[in-house]
Design a protein that fits this description.
Strand order of the largest sheet: 3-2-1-4-5
Oligomer: single chain
Strand content: 25-35%
Helix content: 40-55%
Radius of gyration: 14 Å
CATH topology: Nucleotidyltransferase, domain 5
Number of strands: 5
Order of helices and strands: EEEHEHEHH
CATH architecture: 2-Layer Sandwich
Number of domains: 1
Number of helices: 4
Distance between the termini: 17 Å
Largest sheet: 5 strands, mixed
Length: 140
């Protein structure tokens, strides 16, 4: 069963996909969206869902450090509800506190990448971290 991991922002959605056995996450791409205009990138997400045979979604939930739900987490939950309605597939929320920081650190430590280049891939890598954290949780 393939799972799609999503790091939802107001302008982009980082996309990752699990391998067919559900052990590892790979970054796929960054989909442009416009939350304010109600454009959620579902045309492209749909192409990826069909290509990879996705059976569920894992959406990053950016809770506040005190574990409360703020505006960004609520926006991610709203995106997840739209996914559920649109695809009729399960949506699981994965706590993503500090995943972008973790992804940035990985890029800095493992690749000699400029800040400009890091910005282009950070959302995709954050989606990988979100999905891999989820996969690791269900494997234990």
């Amino acid at each position: 069963m393939r799972t799609m991991g999503l790091d939802v922002g107001s302008k982009t959605v980082g996309v990752a996909i699990s391998d067919p056995l559900g052990w590892t996450a790979q970054g796929i791409e960054i989909v442009s969206i416009d939350e304010e205009e109600g454009e959620f990138g579902f045309a492209r997400i749909n192409e990826l869902v069909e290509r990879y045979g996705v059976e569920q979604f894992v959406v990053g939930l950016p809770k506040n450090m005190n574990n409360s739900i703020g505006p960004r987490a609520q926006a991610s939950m709203n995106y997840g509800k739209k996914l559920e309605e649109y695809y009729q597939l399960p949506v699981i929320y994965q706590d993503e506190r500090l995943t972008t920081v973790q992804a940035e650190r990985m890029l800095v430590e493992q690749a000699d990448t400029s800040r400009k280049k890091r910005k282009k891939v950070i959302d995709k890598l954050a989606a990988v971290v979100i999905l891999q954290n989820y996969l690791d949780t269900i494997m234990n």
